[in-house]
Amino acid sequence: MLPSVLPTESDHVPVLADEIVATLDPRPGETVVDATFGAGGHSTLLASRLKGQGKLIAIDRDPSVTPYFERLRRGTSLKARLLSGEFSTVLEQLSANGVRADIVLLDLGVASMQLGRPERGFSYAVDAPLDMRMDPSSEYSARELVNDASERELADIFKRYGEERYARQIARAIVRRRQTEPFERTGDLVETIKAAIPAPARFGEGHPAKRVFQALRIEVNDELGAIERALPAALEMLRPGGRLAVISFHSLEDRLVKQFLRKQEGGCTCPPDFPICICGSKPVMRATPRRAIRPSTAEVARNPRAQSARLRVGTKVG
Ligand SMILES: C[S@@+](CC[C@H](N)C(=O)[O-])C[C@H]1O[C@@H](n2cnc3c(N)ncnc32)[C@H](O)[C@@H]1O
Prior knowledge:
Mean pLDDT: 92
Structural class: alpha/beta
Radius of gyration: 21 Å
Distance between the termini: 46 Å
Helix content: 40-55%
Bound molecules: S-adenosylmethionine
Order of helices and strands: HEHEHEHEHHHHHHHHEHEHE
Shape: globular
Strand order of the largest sheet: 3-2-1-4-5-7-6
Number of helices: 14
């Protein structure tokens, strides 16, 4: 059967590509887990370094990435497989089944081709059904969230995940409008957001609906919960010397990764006034490098999506 959506080269440009290859340094014979396969840009780069020896395990909760995976598989002699599902669940299952990896990569958020397909409802730029599910088979979409959550819940989501200044005003306007007619389309939501904020703010930084759409997407897909569960599962499945890389696009995501790495590096958890260590805990990871890697100005000029990207890498001690 022909794939319903054929991949094109312009679908998704992998961010921090050179930095990913340099810091993860894949070697022939290793096992690479790309937990956010997308259009397979990073996977293709990492797989080429394995020189036909080793394994690639790709994960994505969006089944529409299958044609991209098939394209990669046709071009490689590596053992490669695609597992559909939420990455924290799949990583936990792989680990429980004794699968071990040398590299685990998480490139968070949505791919350009998901944003570019209006029917997925991720974009505020085109009128489409209000959806935003990365996994189209999951039950909870932006439609349920916008129509069912309380005014307070909506305001909290817009504030926390979107850092939206007019969170309360927008939540109030949404609740008022849905009393007469439920929200079905992104266009209705964009109009309501625009009408709820002061006129000068409509022409401020970026599209006025950008932050609310980001917040709804994070909530609908439980993006932060997935990261919190995935990091320990990834660590568990790494072999000693294995590398974990996470690219985040939001300060809340990056904070979770940073705190996780700090905790794994910490080792001893005894109170500071104990004369000797009695807990016996040893550091299990090293952040390599210590600080987050940011894209170069040249990359941001080529690919504006890279602007907010932060890469953190940890190596399992062993
Ligand atoms: C930014 S894109 C990855 C792009 C990819 N690195 C490339 O070079 O083409 C993120 C991908 O991860 C998937 N994704 C995001 N969160 C996920 C999760 N919790 N579980 C599984 N897949 C997820 C999305 O469906 C999307 O395809």
